Design the sequence.
């Protein structure tokens, strides 16, 4: 194997965000761009000679080309084995599981998640460490630092690898194995959930379901698990063929983007259960006939019912949620007397808590839930969790949700996103909010009195690391909250996210529409941040 050193010049914009480096495909196609970033990662890691690297992505445009480039760089850098999903495909949770199961050194996951794909759209790359989870901030900071001064990368001259046929081949000291992307993951799901019960519930017609794979990675996973293993009719999985451009849509599982599913679920021929996942398979949207379950509620309901699921029958050690996620799960944790941790946005902050067993379940308001079975959020896992719940409780999704609210109260919740805001305007909004923080506590706005106003700073209770500036919080004396933060996954301008919640303990008032119930807080959020005033916009681009 002849190793070549290729001279390169650094790019200054390779700072990973909430979940890896995400840019337009055209940016990644610049000479040496992908190569630099991959070499910067390898330069920052130690002692991986002869070890295993997992490689796969969500199948979007540039996935295959990127994998061929990475194979050669990994070979030149001395890895001993590459495990690559057939066709270059691996969902994010499956990649996490494969890293763990085969005790790999780490993995590279190619995805821009829910962002659109295609030659003019987005691409992304993320490094996951040996526990199967996203690299912690100290690592991503090191990758970025290295990328700013890199002047050469290592590669080898070799023919492209056939990604479509299963099996191993040897290139010098490197073994390259093409693996089935689904089977290890399907086996894991079988070990967590009650498959015989699910099969019986589905084949008897007690549960009817519709799963929208949004032409993204979960198509093959959903077909194998829901159709082949659990006996759902083939037409229960729609948009199951992964496409490089996701059929021209955003593979983003919310009511706006998964509208095909939403229409069916709110029609008079809705099945019992409907769900969707995103580009890389780590997000989930849960619906039932005539009902949408907010991700924050979904997390709380999962926590409250975990003991009905075989893998969690012994109970939960603790739970965690990202800071902007509603406090619904906190109420469950308090009633079960287990700890509840509040972490910054992004799955990497759950890793330590899961590793040391402080938590079993965790989730985010952004359609992400997961557990200690892997170190990523997991879309199909959440789907199976809900199916298992419905089968065990023999109740509709709506009944499960309403009963939960009656017992714990409802945290009425919404998120408003203002996308592609000019960066200077977005930064000015944050500065403006920051400047108000010291004067807000004690101020009264209608029925809301500010209890605290701060910028979230997280101290990891396992390794003591500190992450500052993780979003601006305004909390009120009645438990309501408004949170503002800038997205770390976008590729155009800045996205301002506004998260709003209010607790409603009175069951006669729990069935209100969230936008109506939160109208006063939504207005107050505008008063505080002035996003409409400063951008001239009339409303958010996306509401979830
Ligand atoms: C968003 C979500 C965050 C999630 C992240 C990655 O980040 O808010 O909760 O962990 O996406 O999800 P941000 O910084 O844009 O708010 V995924 O499915 O893109 O890997
Ligand atoms: Co995703």
Sequence:
């Amino acid at each position: 194997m002849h190793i070549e050193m290729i001279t390169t010049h650094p790019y200054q914009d390779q700072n990973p965000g909430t979940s890896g480096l995400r840019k337009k495909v055209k940016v990644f196609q610049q000479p040496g761009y992908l190569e630099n970033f991959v070499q910067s990662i390898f330069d920052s890691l130690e002692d991986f000679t002869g070890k295993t690297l997992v490689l796969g992505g969500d199948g979007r445009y540039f996935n295959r080309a990127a994998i061929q480039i990475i194979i050669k760089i990994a070979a030149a850098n001395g890895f001993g084995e590459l495990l690559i999903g057939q066709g270059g495909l691996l969902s994010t949770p499956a990649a996490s599981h494969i890293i763990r199961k085969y005790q790999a050194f780490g993995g590279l996951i190619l995805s821009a998640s829910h962002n659109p794909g295609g030659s003019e759209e987005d691409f992304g790359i993320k490094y996951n460490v040996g526990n199967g989870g996203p690299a912690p901030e100290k690592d991503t900071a090191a990758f970025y630092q290295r990328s700013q001064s890199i002047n050469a990368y290592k590669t080898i001259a070799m023919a492209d690898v056939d990604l479509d046929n299963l099996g191993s081949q040897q290139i010098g000291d490197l073994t390259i194995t093409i693996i089935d992307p689904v089977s290890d993951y399907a086996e894991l799901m079988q070990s967590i959930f009650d498959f015989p019960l699910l099969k019986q519930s589905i084949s008897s017609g007690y549960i009817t379901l519709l799963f929208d794979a949004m032409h993204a990675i979960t198509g093959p996973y959903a077909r194998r698990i829901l159709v082949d293993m659990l006996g759902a009719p083939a037409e229960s999985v729609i948009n199951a063929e992964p496409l490089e451009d996701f059929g021209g849509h955003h593979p983003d599982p919310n009511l706006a983007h998964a509208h095909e599913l939403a229409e069916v679920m709110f029609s008079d021929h809705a099945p019992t259960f409907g769900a969707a996942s995103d580009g890389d398979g780590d997000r989930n949207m849960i619906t039932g006939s005539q009902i949408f379950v907010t991700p924050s509620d979904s997390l709380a309901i999962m926590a409250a019912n975990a003991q009905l699921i075989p893998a969690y029958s012994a109970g939960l050690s603790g739970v965690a949620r990202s800071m902007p996620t509603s406090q619904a799960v906190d109420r469950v944790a308090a009633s079960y007397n287990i700890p509840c941790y509040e972490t910054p946005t992004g799955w990497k902050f759950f890793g330590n808590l899961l590793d040391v067993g402080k938590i079993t379940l965790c989730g985010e308001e952004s359609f992400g839930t997961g557990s200690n079975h892997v170190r990523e959020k997991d879309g199909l896992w959440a789907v199976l969790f809900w199916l298992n719940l419905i089968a065990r409780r023999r109740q509709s999704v709506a009944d499960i949700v309403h009963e939960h609210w009656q017992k714990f109260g409802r945290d009425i919740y919404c998120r408003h996103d203002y996308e592609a805001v000019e960066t200077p305007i977005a930064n000015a909004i944050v500065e403006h909010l920051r400047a108000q923080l010291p004067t807000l506590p004690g101020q009264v706005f209608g029925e809301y009195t500010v209890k605290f106003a701060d910028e979230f700073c997280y101290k990891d209770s396992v390794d003591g690391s500190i992450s500052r500036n993780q979003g601006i919080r305004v909390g009120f004396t009645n438990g309501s909250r408004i949170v503002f933060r800038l997205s770390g996954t976008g590729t155009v301008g800045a996205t301002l996210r506004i998260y709003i919640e209010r607790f409603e303990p009175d069951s006669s008032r729990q069935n209100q529409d969230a936008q109506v119930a939160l109208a006063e807080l939504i207005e107050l959020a505008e008063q505080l941040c002035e996003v409409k005033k400063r951008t001239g916009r009339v409303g958010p681009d996306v509401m979830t």
